[in-house]
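Instructor's aside before we start: the two examples that follow are unrelated to each other. I chose them only because their records fit on one page, so don't look for a connection. First example below.
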Amino acid sequence: MQGTRESSSPSVAYTPTDRTVPTRSADRASYDRDAVHAILDEGYVCHLGFVRDGAPVVLPTLYGRVGERLYVHGSTGSRPLRMAGGTDPGLEVCLTVTHVDGLVLARSAFHHSMNYRSVVVHGTAHEVTDPEERRLALDALVDQVVPGRAADSRPANRKELAATAVIRLDLGEVSAKMRTGGAHDEPEDLSLPHWAGVVPLRKGYEAPVPNPDLAPGIGLPDYLTP
């Protein structure tokens, strides 16, 4: 699966736009393609924002990346997926992915912060109708959670495919933003008697727990072995 995530584009950076240049802490923004892909590939859940009946809606959902496209899936009855399909010109969306790497504790309450890595994607989402692209997208969604799992599970059958909708979003208008380092206190606060520094956070995994109805003789697959 790792190979399908790679970009075939020779460009090393995305082009900044009015929507991808932050108005605050612009020095933390990055348009580097590899940095954007790395942040996306490490995540599981994105937040998909769109406008419904004149009001903003933001939904958490799984996603998968294949080259310069992101895929999101859901029920065929899902409102955003229906809005992106049919004869409509697509659905204008904003998709975000964020990793929190550390809690930044400052001497002053004002300067508390977080170390993070995030990606924001703007664009028009479209329904995927081509059967081969749908298969590729659904495999990518499974492998986004556990790389290698799509090849080690039963593919969706006709009934399941009929109940599943997939939308795609091209990585065209996109940026990353990151914060690293410690607290930035005011010079006059450095002598205050309060601890300052970073509490690092890291993602970890517990030992896999087999299903009680697992057939005898089925061992732990290599992709789940530490």
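Example two begins here.
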Amino acid sequence: MSFQVFNSLTRKLEPFRTLEPGVARMYNCGPTVYNRPHVGNYRAFLFADTLRRWLEYRGYRVEQVMNITDVGHLTDDGDEGEDKLEKQAKKEKLDPWEISRKVAAQFFADLKALGVRPARVYPKASDHIPEMVEIIEGLLAKGHAYETGGNVYFDVKSFPSYGKLSGNKVEELDAGARIAVREDKRNPEDFALWKSDPAHIMKWATRFGPHGFPGWHIECSAMARKHLGDRLDIHTGGEDNIFPHHECEIAQTESFTGQPFATFWMHSKFLQVDGGKMSKSLGNVYTLDDVAAKGYQPRQLRFALIRGHYRAPLNFTWDAMKDAASSLENLDDLVVRLRRAAKDAEGDAARGLDLVAAARVTFEEGMDDDLNVSRALPGLSALRALVLEGKLGRDAAAKALEFVTAANGVLGCISVEEELLAADIEALIEKRQAARKAKDFKESDRIRDELLAKGIVLEDTPKGVVWRKK
């Protein structure tokens, strides 16, 4: 089975292909750094990381770019409202540049904690003003844009296929609903490429005027083109990016280059919290710090956010986190048992090799089915059942351990490294063994509970005690 992905552009599953064999050029819409990203944002970012990891598992070199929006994203996601950075800067009484630096640093720290592989580059919008101006000038020259009062707008009616991603037709768009009517626009649906505002703090002097700033949509087009070229293999984002952001990206980029922008468009579903939307008023906008305060590790959050299909609804609750942590503990336990079986299993060393191969097929077929992690995971669960039942010989256990390690290269959350115990923990285990030998089971149980409180789980086997981290 080849890797199949659901293309938001064609609304169907398609075999994955790239413009250049073996190379996947991928652009991911990153954060607007006005406030620390929350668990809902991380669903989209972890989806992008899982996609990148699966492509690498399949042998692709992934040229990944994720932007940092530090200017121009207005509060209505269109041409009206305040700049999100400047609004937050006023609230915190800080310079917007300082806000963007602080939040970007938090974002990168969170990515590292979540085990996200670094993109090749994280371009900032404010560093790419010349590239934006170049595209705007080209659109003006080709008749796809127009100037009025220091603003530059894209003429949507100059691009007949506008709406091909979202399904919105220009003639059906309600001018008073999603798009505010402005007298300086030719058409209510036209969107800003460049805005003029003397009061805007973050501004640049160009031939359009002394105090302008870019529209949100033009930023991604310019950064994608600068770092990946005129054509992409994949463009990702959350489902809220489909319209207007990605629709506008397509219109302006394809009007400028005369070529298709991205072959595949992939979008993750919103994350619900407690069955509804996240809201500051409800107190359910959770960051990594909130997750840690509840006693959960970042890798457990990662597992909770990726184990459902990225296009399926996912409800974040603390009960769901508890279940994810328990399931991940079982996968950690699988690694410990496989490592032990690879050393100690008796009898036919090759026993179960066919079962391990079948488990790998289950995992790979699930991932090839549009990154269906929930379909892939039973391949790992099957291995745990096999090793618990003693159906794997030494060679099969070693092969299974090799496979689980490779699978974790995609999942990024299983504890696969062999760990050494601290001297005080080893001493406690030896003390417990001595208590058991002396038949002092009360003391033995007390030490066992003490070790459990320290995150060490013991298991008594015919060959002695074995341990794993909880």
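Residues 65 and 407 are 24 Å apart (CA to CA).
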